[in-house]
Amino acid sequence: EAGVVQSPRYKIIEKKQPVAFWCNPISGHNTLYWYRQNLGQGPELLIRYENEEAVDDSQLPKDRFSAERLKGVDSTLKIQPAELGDSAVYLCASTPAQSGAGETQYFGPGTRLLVL
Amino acid sequence: QKEVEQDPGPLSVPEGAIVSLNCTYSNSAFQYFMWYRQYSRKGPELLMYTYSSGNKEDGRFTAQVDKSSKYISLFIRDSQPSDSATYLCAIMNSGNTPLVFGKGTRLSVIA
Fold first, then answer.
1. Which of A26, A104, B19, B35 would bridge with B47, disulfide CB 3.0–4.6 Å?
2. Cα(B30)–Cα(B5) distance, rounded to whole angstroms?
């Protein structure tokens, strides 16, 4: 079974440029998460989807960040414009249909973003 | 005070040593406790999951939760160089609340 797929793996951009990250969760996983992991820190949730609905986006900086999961499968996270402080690893994770307490979140390898 | 506190290390031990990794948390409502392992340039992977207080053992790994002290631990017996990674504790209130991660402890096991 294929794991969570993310692309690109690495991205270097100049500040004020836009950038987009793509995630394809494990087949059949209805819940999808985007996390940001700063250097030396644990992941912090940006947004959680149940199918195509964003059910928790309270930590998403909506002035510059946007996300979509149009058909309830793959998802895109966008930053426009990027700032120096956005340099981090952006992780995508998914859980099976019946997301509940203790459900294992399967993480992708992440996209490492460097903003110059 | 952060919701989850974890000593970032780094921690360096010789092969075969017993490793103890710890986290404290502030919110007594948290019920689900997990340990993730993250290798360099990889995403986290779930190692252990426990609910409520007590111990859980899986091979060389033992997870321990003390809810009265708000303290969780992961013990690694007979540590191996392949255990070298960052270990993240994560806690959750209920099934529909987000995981709250600690900073992670970077462990190196020296052969």
1. B35
2. 14
